[in-house]
């Protein structure tokens, strides 16, 4: 009991079946090769039948029950932009499930639900995968992430940080004086790992190099750097290894699905096959062969609260086999984000707009899709597909969020459209910088 993390204790107090999830995950770890494949085939159909038979909204999307898995309709994020009561599959309801929202790093905000067993399994998987790199849920994390800057959301995140042993380094301001202060925090605190957006951690690592510092020498307890949310290129990895001084681990996930891919100690970027069924398909939704690029589809094999079945996550990837026959992510495409540069000299990651859109979703709920272009050092153009025409109050709210998360005095141009035009890859990238990098 003494080695149980506070996070696990709190989750048990909240009714999450952590011991049952631990036992279930250990059974899944015994599956490999053909036995894992056969179990996945059975489990994907079992979760499909559950939602098809019990969820009227999902049944209306599917139509007639398909005979082949390839004929199960692909779910897009627009399918999930519904009232949460519509999405939750009976007999569960809002009082019995975990509910959160994703504002969508690709510009699709929506709420999602997970049953308590499914959510517990997600944390058990994190625990087991992190253990491969010498980490526990008690390890002190330096978290390079955003945070809501006001209201209930701020205090909820601060409480979660306390419970999960995370010290947050908000990435809205990546200026040199701020990063100098961050280095001093590493001198004082026994961090075991760095976790955060790839672009933000890379920028910090580059700053350390400019200062002639290897962070591991400043903070000897550091063991690993885990980067997430954006593609980590070979060049990024080199900068991270030189500036931070520890092993770099690539993570790929989505809040509504949990971990999708995680790099093992041998450097293989493994797909998380025990909680998810992961496919890649072409433009018509047909499976593509291993080794070829395709749209990523996710089926949550344990989530009985909400149908995430053949769900299009919004990325392109190349899947192949690992050395032992497991599924590996050979290449993840389409998650590189630009940096925001401001008149004051501040620099922020493009994912700052994730928090702006999250606030708008929680406060008003009218955004369906969005992209932002920085067209000048002080000018941002919002292209918004909204559920209704924007009012002057809506526009003032967006300006207020810009002032809060970036800085006051920025010019805001809003274009309301009926449809967001996608790039050639089919993915909506939420932020584009059209100014020359400093």
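^ structure tokens above, recovered residues below v
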């Amino acid at each position: 009991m003494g080695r149980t993390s506070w996070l696990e204790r709190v989750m048990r107090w909240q009714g999450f079946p952590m011991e049952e999830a631990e036992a279930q995950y250990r059974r899944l770890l015994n599956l490999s090769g053909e036995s894992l494949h056969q179990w996945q085939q059975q489990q994907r159909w079992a979760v499909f039948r559950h939602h098809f038979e019990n969820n009227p909204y999902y049944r209306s999307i599917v139509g007639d029950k398909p005979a082949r898995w390839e004929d199960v309709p692909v779910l897009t994020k627009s399918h999930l932009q519904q009232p949460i009561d519509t999405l939750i599959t009976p007999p569960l309801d809002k009082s019995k499930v975990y509910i959160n929202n994703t504002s969508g790093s690709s510009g699709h905000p929506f709420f999602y639900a997970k049953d308590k067993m499914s959510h517990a399994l997600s944390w058990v998987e994190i625990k087991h995968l992190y253990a491969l790199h010498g980490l526990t849920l008690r390890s002190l994390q330096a978290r390079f992430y955003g945070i809501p800057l006001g209201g209930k959301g701020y205090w909820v995140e601060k409480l979660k940080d306390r419970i999960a042993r995370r010290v947050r380094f908000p990435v809205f301001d990546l200026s040199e004086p701020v990063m100098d202060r961050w280095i001093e925090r590493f001198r004082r605190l026994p961090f075991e790992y760095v976790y955060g957006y790839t672009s933000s951690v890379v920028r910090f690592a580059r700053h350390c190099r400019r200062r002639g510092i290897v962070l591991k020498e400043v903070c000897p307890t550091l063991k690993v750097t885990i980067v997430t949310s954006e593609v980590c290129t070979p060049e990024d990895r080199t900068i991270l290894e030189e500036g931070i001084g520890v092993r770099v681990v690539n993570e790929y996930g989505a809040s509504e699905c949990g971990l999708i891919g995680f790099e093992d100690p041998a450097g293989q970027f493994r797909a998380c096959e025990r909680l998810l069924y992961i496919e890649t398909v072409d433009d018509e939704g047909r499976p593509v062969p291993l080794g070829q690029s395709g749209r990523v589809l996710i089926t949550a094999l344990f989530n009985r609260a909400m149908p995430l079945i053949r769900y299009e996550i919004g990325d392109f990837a190349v899947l192949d086999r690992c050395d032992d026959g497991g599924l590996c992510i050979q290449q993840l495409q389409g998650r590189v984000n630009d940096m925001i540069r401001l008149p004051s000299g501040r620099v922020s990651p493009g994912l700052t707009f994730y928090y702006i859109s999250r606030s708008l979703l929680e406060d008003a709920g009218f955004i369906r899709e969005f992209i932002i272009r920085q067209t000048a050092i002080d000018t941002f153009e919002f292209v918004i597909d909204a559920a209704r025409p924007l009012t002057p109050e809506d526009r003032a709210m967006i300006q207020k969020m810009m002032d809060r998360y970036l800085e006051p005095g920025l010019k805001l141009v809003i274009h309301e459209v009926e449809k967001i035009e996608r790039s050639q890859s089919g993915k909506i990238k939420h932020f584009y910088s059209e100014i020359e990098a400093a």
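The chain has 13 helices and 19 strands.
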